[in-house]
UniProtKB/TrEMBL annotation:
It comes from the Bacteria. This is TetR family transcriptional regulator. InterPro entries: Homeodomain-like_sf, Tet_transcr_reg_TetR-rel_C_sf.
Amino acid sequence: MTSPLLNAEDERVLAALALAMVDKPRATLQELAQAIGVSKATLYRFSRTREELVDRLMAHGAQLMNRALEEAELDKAPAVEALRRFIEGQLRHSELAAFMIYHWKPDTLQDVRAAATWSAYFAVLDGFFLRGQRDGLFRIEIGAAVLSESLISLLSGLMDAERRGRIARASLPGMIEAMFLAGALSQPAP
């Protein structure tokens, strides 16, 4: 499900709702509205039930993550530059990412729409790593899918640590890039 283009205020409300649902997972719609400083009527513009809200936020988060993936130009930009843009783009929507991490369920990919969205996402990311392996940049003994999953796991874990106040936001992009590249770059044999 693709969300229509949203104005800045709607984007702000959805991001705030995403974090509120992570911080207060059992909150009612009324409590969520109060937590982000909007009326219940404003919240009802986005969804009328908690289930609709979860679906809306999952779809919106997927749309934002895919947009950031496209903007990174993983298929044509120099690899390290593209990786940097990918990391920065994913971090730009950390509220929605936190929500998606928290609400992810193993059966999510059984939904045809979700499976198609995430299969396409990982196909692009895997293709990026395959290109980097062919160019000699990334280690070939680690499969492209492993590199993709490792990067997403690193992003997810450190985004969560930043949300909990353990890591400073400003240092996060460079830290993720450095940590990932330290393990992923092709290295000459000892």
